[in-house]
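Researcher: We're teaching a course module on how sequence relates to structure. For the next exercise, students receive a sequence and then see the predicted structure as tokens, so they can try to spot secondary structure elements on their own. Here is the exercise chain.
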Amino acid sequence: MSDIRARQRAYWRATLRLTWVLLLAWAAASFLPGWFADDLNAFSFYGWPLGFYMAAQGALIIFLLIVWIYDRWMTRLERRYGLYDED
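Model: And here is the predicted structure for the students to work with:
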């Protein structure tokens, strides 16, 4: 029984670690472009100031990437700890 509980704890720790890392990435994608907009606007991306682009489109792309990474990583964790269900 202790082996099962140890695996559950390891799975939970890995899940929490992934969640925290992705939450930090989400916070950075949300707030950093606004804080550094003047500096980012010195560069352009497809003719638009980079700060504007990051606020308008870049953050959305990063959010979709975060969701995709979460799905892939959780599937990998579930397979590693024997919790993956094919359905």
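Model: If you want an answer key for the exercise: The first strand starts at residue 44 and ends at 45. The CA atoms of residues 5 and 11 lie 10 Å apart.
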